[in-house]
Design a protein that fits this description.
Layout lengths: L1 H19 L1 H4 L4 H28 L12 H18 L13 H16 L3 H24 L11 H24 L8
Helix pairs in contact: 1-3, 1-6, 4-5, 4-7, 5-6
């Protein structure tokens, strides 16, 4: 569990860097700016690796038993979470309707995983990541001006987003199955 907590701490620290040291990110020299981004990216990659290793090594300590129907809920809404995560970089006409779509997608992903995993390691991992995503949105809303809403996009962009989300969903469920976690009802 130590590696899991360390990974979560690095994840939060790597993202907090943007808020704690905004001046360091506004360096005008591209070489230093790229180095700064590379260091933060490396910290986040290490954080994810530690979270995965820590989660997989954590002992299973049951805290609650999720109802069986929540698997159906997760299977359906994970497509929405993936679409929300990708919405920010899409050409969908829905893009201007939601502020912080990546964080909403991330928060939905974490919340959904809490509905099907009732063990302590899952509560720590997904609970902390859910709290981080919600806290990050609150912090961003309090410290940054609301950008002009995206007015572009098209129905074709929305259809493309849905197709890409479904493909990513298939890939993600395949990875889960490969790792020994069957994501569908049995």
């Amino acid at each position: 569990m130590v590696l899991l907590v360390l990974g979560l701490a690095l994840w939060i620290a790597g993202h907090a860097y943007k808020r704690v040291a905004p001046g360091a990110r506004e360096v005008k020299e591209p070489r230093i700016d790229n180095t700064s981004k590379a260091v933060v990216a490396a910290v986040l990659v290490v954080a994810v690796i530690l979270m995965v290793i820590g989660y997989r090594r954590a002992p299973f300590i049951a805290v609650y038993t999720p109802p069986e129907w929540t698997v159906h809920l997760v299977d359906l809404l994970m497509i929405v979470a993936i679409a929300l995560f990708g919405l920010n970089n899409s050409k969908s006409n829905l893009r201007g309707k939601i502020r912080h779509p990546q964080l909403w997608g991330f928060a939905l992903w974490a919340a959904l995983h809490l509905t099907v995993n009732g063990d302590l390691a899952s509560i720590v991992l997904f609970g902390v990541l859910l709290a981080w995503a919600l806290g990050e949105m609150i912090l961003l809303n309090a410290t940054t001006a609301r950008p002009a809403p995206y007015t572009g996009g098209s129905t074709k962009g929305t259809i493309r987003l849905i197709v890409i989300s479904l493909i990513l969903y298939a890939i993600i469920t395949s990875i889960h199955a490969w790792l020994g976690v069957w994501p569908f009802p049995r």
